[in-house]
UniProtKB/TrEMBL annotation:
GO terms for molecular function: formate dehydrogenase (NAD+) activity; NAD binding; oxidoreductase activity, acting on the CH-OH group of donors, NAD or NADP as acceptor. One of its GO terms (biological process) is formate catabolic process. The record marks 286, 334 as: Important for catalytic activity. NAD(+) binds at residues 149, 203-204, 223, 258-262, 284, 310, 334-337, 382. Catalyzes the NAD(+)-dependent oxidation of formate to carbon dioxide. Formate oxidation is the final step in the methanol oxidation pathway in methylotrophic microorganisms. Has a role in the detoxification of exogenous formate in non-methylotrophic organisms. Belongs to the D-isomer specific 2-hydroxyacid dehydrogenase family. FDH subfamily. It catalyses: formate + NAD(+) = CO2 + NADH. This is Formate dehydrogenase. Pfam families: 2-Hacid_dh, 2-Hacid_dh_C. It is found in: Cytoplasm. Its main location: cytoplasm. GO terms for cellular component: cytoplasm.
Amino acid sequence: MAKVLCVLYPDPVTGYPPKYARNNVPDIKGYPNGQTVPSPEGPLGFKPGELVGCVSGELGLRKYLESHGHELVVTSDKDGADSTFDRHLPDADIVISQPFWPAYLTAERLAKAKKLKLALTAGIGSDHVDLKAAAKHGVTVAEVTFSNSISVAEHVVMMTLSLVRNYLPSHQYAANGGWNIADCVSRSYDVEGMHFGTIAAGRIGLAVLRRMKPFDVHLHYYDPHRLSPEIEKELNATYHETPMSLVKVCDVVNLQMPLYPSTEHMFDDKMFDLMKRGSYLINTARGKLCDRDAVVRALESGKLAGYAGDVWYPQPAPVDHPWRRMPYEGMTPHISGTSLSAQYRYASGTLEILQCFFDKRPIRSEYLIVDGGNLAGTGAGSYKLD
Ligand code: NDP
């Protein structure tokens, strides 16, 4: 019998279950690179389209786990020395957490988690786990690769249009009863003809490029590995040897690389100095890719015309986090990868990974980040331990 400790975001303040706007979500069969969607065995413990990412939703796992004799503890209480998470961690075999409400598995916490074998990310991005410490302690780290990549790519397109066209302030004028056209359009432009670049062209970054192409922008990208000539031709995209070269020419810059020690604070005062005056920065990757206060300075000086994203540090962000109040921001809480459509896929993938783990079958290599004491699978391509 295993103890599964699952950290999820709190229920809606309006109660659970919510009243759903639609009856279902589209059934996606596969991903653009040919990878198949999760395929757990047996029935799912929820209906596609239900809110399962919050505490009462339990990722739909309770029936499966308890019918197999396992214990499931679900909590949103994850921070502070006496949190429910900390109290259960020492005898947990498996921790499940979502990047939206991350249970930070630091080296100190991993040292106390003597029984831990699997740290499972219900979603994508396992930087809330100290990967080096996980490797040292022989903990397998896995995530549900591709489950919410398109969800995030759609969010990036939305945020790009929203910033460039000055949507949020204009909406606010209308909602407040105003008709201030001149105020609304004083910062409103078309994206057509602009230079749009993404730093990292992995699953999400490439999907963003493909979605931006019909807007007749000039596309740019930087990634440690160059895309194939066929894809570069399809997109008519310019490859840059460095992120610095890209930011010098782009009007909109999108961040899509993973967070690991050497990408932390890649966007600092020095990087902002290189950007064009009036650039827009979109960050749905991780908050710590940017120096928090340098972002505020760049907006205040006019170097950045706008900053939008859904990732912060820490999460949840404190109420006095400056990104909540800085000028020209289009921030949301961390929601892009947890639409009801995405939850269907990552909750199914979580079940698939658990079934593989308990049945001693291999976990798909594309889901692995750390295994056997080292980076593995997708982790070996996308992350570095230092
Ligand atoms: P992928 O692994 O498909 O892509 C990551 C890409 O980043 C790879 O192409 C990798 O290059 C590249 N990369 C690695 N290091 C660098 C670097 N130093 N500079 C530039 N590029 C680099 O991941 P996804 O596209 O699925 O996800 C990317 C990130 O987005 C996740 O790590 C996560 O942090 C975030 N995310 C956010 C979500 C949200 O809800 N906001 C949801 C899902 C993900 P290569 O492999 O060629 O070496």
